[in-house]
Design goal:
The chain is of the alpha+beta class. It is built from 22 helices and 19 strands. It is elongated, with a radius of gyration of 36 Å.
């Protein structure tokens, strides 16, 4: 046999086989390592975003969860390498997944004892409570209910553990489909919180997400020869998509499916009946946007004041029908509490104009009749989608010290806000109709304070009437909570605190004959109407001017538009209390796990006025979340995104070239370390990566002839030179050169640009000496 026709053992038969076992093993090892790196990067990107669902995001815990999931992925990835029966690998895989799930749940704060069978009941109750609260809360969650916070954080292991199992489960069947599903789960881990709350620079995070997804898809399987086209595609996509991404940062959706209603006509929208009924909640709860509000601070957006308790329910009376919009403002009001707020109507239809605090002026083309209690009725038409108006409102934000210093006595003008009716014999909320709008607020059944600052029961006759009514024990509770309190503010906080302990939130409480009495002493469950109605009634029994306000909680702050997105989930009722010299201050006794959970009341807040002030005097305001980006000068699509453009236009190409150089250099070193002829190994690598399959046992002479037909004379000439260098005598190969350019052109001739880029990476123009 001629030496020129001898078989070359180093030459592979194709992309999957060959005599390069060492390099193949290294490539397989690198695949697992790269898969783990891509998984960890994508998991951390999503976990860091998810952690911001709660206030003071626990990024440390999120990092621990990612580390645990990555360690579990490594364990699953190594299982196929063990020489054990398949059943053993399956059992080991299940144990790894369970261990990771338990460890990840513990890392986010779930007590491990609740995962034991004895704790499942308590765990189920807690998760149910957390899901109810998390279903409609504003982001980030600032309430104090630990189960809501824990339930939100448990989303990390709930998504990361399945993604880990899908991506690294020890089985080859449907492996590609499982990895695809794992990618979907990991992207959801990032996308779900990103759609609800923007953190940092959206375009920068989007660019990073694109790079990490590309790494997940390409790095572990396509190896070095695909890096150049992959990085080029990613860089080009990043640059091309920037204008589109900047245009998409607006708060208006391109397709708003929440408003699809093929059966509605013009003027459609959701309406709300604010009168208290206390049965199962009938308000819309779809999450649709009702209002966009541009305000310097977060407030409760009031639609109607409910000033009359008729013995069964709270409703709006005619008490202030003839008053002016400024009639209930303090004589010398604090100018810092005057604000101008802009409202844009989205999905709301209402005959009442939504404002804040006490709205005393409206600019927006609507003819409005204002009243002293802050209720503003539209006289011409109604609020409909697209309407925009601006209100001037007085919204007090007093500290605890200011409210404690307010005089106990108040103007007799506010005595009606201590009145309440006692039910007639036979009255029942189960059968009685709702009082008509603007009904009178005084009847023969009405009782209340006779002197400002003195409880109604100070009059023996009134006290006897109350004690012989169905509200005797409610009155006794109100007086017991007020006992020993130095100021009306202390009484307010005592009543509010009582309702925030031992009562549960539910939107389907039973309707009783006397709903508020049953709520306080029997059912102890309800939603905002029960909590606010009971608090206002007890405060009036203590002689403190109070009323119920109905409208919307602050909503979700949008850092991109510096507005509050107010949804139907934010429909709410709260309490307003009069403090002399200050005005009407909102308080919210409803638990923080309610869907209108943007409320900022609770034990640690003095009031619900713009979040109040905590014991240290620090501001606790949702408004700061909206205004912070504005103060930093980062406007949507403005200069704050300039560095992202620079990174995409300049940085990504530079990184691409650096990556290509690193890959080529690493492969060259690997060829040298592998031993044998590096030129022959490079040729085998290029043929395999460019799809030129070579049958087993093919000699260099046969390959020369084959390539002369399939790839042209240049490729055949390269193999001839390689064959001569290998088999001819040293004196006969002087001046023979390996024309790698001709080989590259021949192997990629007639094929697309991606293949040409792939050939350039497999056979780069530079290398360790072409002269022979």
């Amino acid at each position: 046999m001629s030496t020129s026709a001898a078989a070359v053992p180093e030459l592979p038969v194709g992309p999957r086989a060959g005599a390069w076992p060492l390099a193949a093993r290294l490539a397989a090892d690198d695949s697992l390592v790269l898969r783990l790196a891509a998984f960890a990067a994508l998991a951390w990107l999503g976990a860091a975003q998810w952690a911001h669902f709660v206030d003071h995001a626990p990024t440390g815990r999120a990092l621990v969860v990612v580390a645990i999931a990555t360690a579990g992925a490594a364990a699953l990835g190594w299982l196929p390498r063990l020489s054990v029966p398949r059943a053993v690998r399956v059992v080991a895989g299940v144990l790894v997944v369970l261990a990771v799930a338990v460890s990840a749940c513990a890392a986010v704060g779930l007590p491990v004892r609740l995962l034991e069978p004895a704790g499942w009941g308590r765990l189920g109750d807690g998760l149910n409570r957390g899901l109810v609260g998390a279903s409609g809360t504003g982001w980030p969650y600032v309430g104090g209910d630990p189960w809501v916070r824990l339930t939100l954080l448990l989303g990390l292991p709930a998504l990361l553990v399945p993604a880990m199992a899908l991506a690294f489960w020890p089985g080859r069947r449907t492996g590609g489909a499982r990895r695809g599903l794992a990618l979907v789960v990991l992207v959801a881990l990032f996308a779900i919180p990103a759609t609800e709350r923007s953190v940092g620079t959206p375009l920068a995070r989007g660019a990073v997400l694109l790079l990490v997804i590309a790494a997940w898809l390409w790095l572990p399987r396509l190896r070095g020869h695909d890096l150049l086209p992959a990085l080029a595609v990613v860089a080009g996509a990043s640059v091309l998509v920037l204008p589109l991404a900047s245009a998409a940062t607006g708060h208006q959706p391109w397709v708003d499916y929440t408003r699809w209603n093929p059966f509605s006509g013009n003027g459609s929208g959701r309406t709300f009946d604010w009168t208290h009924r206390y049965g199962p909640l009938g308000w819309s709860r779809s999450g649709a946007t009702m209002l966009d509000v541009r305000s310097p601070h977060s407030h409760y957006w009031k639609a109607e004041t409910l000033d009359r308790f008729d013995g069964l329910r709270w409703s709006h009376s005619d008490a202030t029908a003839n008053s002016t919009a400024t009639s209930e403002l303090p004589p010398a009001r604090n100018p810092r509490w005057d604000e101008r707020i802009q409202f844009t109507v989205r999905g709301l239809k209402s005959d009442l104009l939504v404002g804040a605090g006490t709205t005393y002026a409206v600019d927006g083309g609507k003819q409005v009749a204002g009243a002293g209690d802050g209720t503003n009725r539209i006289l011409s038409g109604s609020l409909n989608e697209g309407d925009t108006y601006t209100v001037a409102a007085y919204v007090p934000d007093p500290s605890a010290a200011q409210m404690q210093a307010a005089p106990r006595a108040f103007s007799s003008q506010f005595l009606p806000y201590t009145y309440f009716d006692l039910p007639r014999p036979g009255d029942s909320a189960l059968t009685a109709s709702v009082p008509p709008e603007l009904a009178g607020n005084v009847t023969p059944r009405t009782v209340g304070s006779q002197v400002p600052g003195v409880a109604p029961g100070a009059d023996p006759v009134i006290r006897s009437r109350i004690l012989h009514s169905p509200y005797a024990r409610t009155y006794a509770l109100a007086r017991r909570l007020a006992a020993g309190q130095r100021t009306p503010y202390d009484v307010v906080k005592r009543v509010e605190g009582h309702l925030q302990h031992g009562f549960a939130y539910s939107e389907r409480p039973p309707l009783r004959r006397y709903p508020l009495d049953a709520f306080l002493f029997h059912d102890r469950t309800g939603y905002c109407q029960q909590f606010s109605g009971a608090m206002a009634l007890m405060l009036r029994m203590d002689g403190i001017p109070a009323r119920v306000a109905a409208g919307f909680a602050p909503g979700v702050p949008d850092t991109a538009t510096h507005e509050y997105r107010v949804r139907d989930l934010d429909a709410h009722s709260w309490v307003e209390v009069w403090f002399s010299g200050i005005g009407w201050v909102p308080f919210d006794p409803t638990p923080s796990l309610s869907p209108a959970a943007a409320q900022s009341s609770g034990d640690r807040a003095t009031s619900a006025a713009i979040g109040g002030r905590d014991a240290t005097g620090g501001k606790r305001t949702l408004g700061s979340q909206v205004n912070a980006p504005s103060r930093a000068g980062a406007q949507p699509g403005g200069g704050g995104q300039a560095w992202v453009v620079v990174l995409a236009v300049i940085g990504l190409p530079v990184l691409t070239l650096a990556g290509v150089w690193a890959v080529v250099a690493a492969r060259t070193r690997r060829l040298r370390r592998a031993g044998g002829d590096p030129d022959l190994r490079e040729l085998a690598f290029a043929l395999a990566r460019l799809g030129h399959r070579v049958p087993s046992g093919t000699t260099l002479l046969e390959l020369e002839r084959r390539l002369g037909v399939t790839a042209g004379a240049g490729a055949a000439r390269y193999v001839r030179a390689l064959r001569r260098r290998r088999f001819d005598a040293p004196g006969r190969v002087a001046g023979v050169r390996l024309d790698r350019r001709a080989l590259r052109r021949g192997l990629a001739a007639g094929r697309g640009p991606i293949v040409k880029l792939r050939a350039l990476l497999a056979l780069p123009p530079w290398r360790h000496g072409d002269a022979l």
